[in-house]
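Quick log. Single chain, no ligands specified.
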Amino acid sequence: MNRRKPFTIMRKDTEVMRVDFDTLTYEVKNEAYLPYPIQGRLHDLPDPAGITTRYDLTQSLLAARKNEEAVVSWLANRVLLLSRANAKWIYNLFLFEQTGTDEQRVKIAMTCRAVSVLDPYWLKFDDDKDICWNSVDVRKNPLNEIVAQVALHGKSLTLAGSPVTPELTTNGAYAKAWRRHPDGNLWLYKLGANGSTESRIEVMCSNLLDKMNVEHVHYEAGRDEDKYVCMCPCMTTEEKAVLTGMEFISWCNVNGIDPEKRMFEIDAESIYKMWIVDFLISNRDRHGQNWGFYYDTETMEITGCHPLFDHNNAFDIDFMRDMDAPYQFGGMTVREAAVKAMREVDFHFTVPVTRADFITDRQYASFRKRAEYLGLRVG
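-> predicted structure:
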């Protein structure tokens, strides 16, 4: 599909913004539903009739290019990176060039209509006649099993069926794929990079969080083609979409909002509990794409933090040894953040934590030491 083909950014069946890269035309049709990563980044274009000087023309082109950058960035960031496990196999399946450039990722986004499990946005082209949200929504339509097999296991297969798939817009570093369970819901299956180690740690951490008063995504152990996987239900719905921490910070900065102040205004309790959890489980991998917020898909209101997830890199050996490792929030160490958080929220174990909850003695000893430092009792 040619990148130059005009399209409309849709929010379910609502037209949000029409884009024509060839003519540098960007027409906002519903400003209230602009995706957060685009909000505040668009520039008004002057009426062509009012362009009478070279300066006017230059300024108009600069504004149009800024709009192009905003849309390209949004589309490119919806597409998986080549660094993700099995990404090259997925690219091969679709005969995509493996350049990794924004230009190439925009082409990929247009191929799969930029559909994602994280939100209700997609792309509609001018020659689409019977295409609507119900026909592209991955929650309601069959998943492409061939793409899922390639995404999870890195196989060399031939593509068949619809190219609309959530695999092309699912980020992260590990091999993963979406499956539909018998109850009709989407579940994400994830493999570890080192055999089953990371997947087992993910399940262990999920079971630990089950014993804390913390909102989190529950992971279960499973097998796929006789390989151990961790699997979890999709945490978004038709009504609840995700704004990643990275997108949130960027949105705040672009729109003159203090990110740290705003995130505490939205949901201080969940932020503080995340700090405590990361300290307890020696989590070295909290980054801008595995924490963030829910927003209402109808009102666009940011309603609170989404549940914690993605802890397969927890109990890192070096982090277990270093209680004062740097943390990404507030210029603090992970211990300083946890101590501060304990003063701000009620964090406790709802069920006793024991040695049986851990894979190794080292993990249990580290967790127990950190919990006791915070005044939490471990059995």
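Residues 244 and 292 are 4 Å apart (CA to CA).
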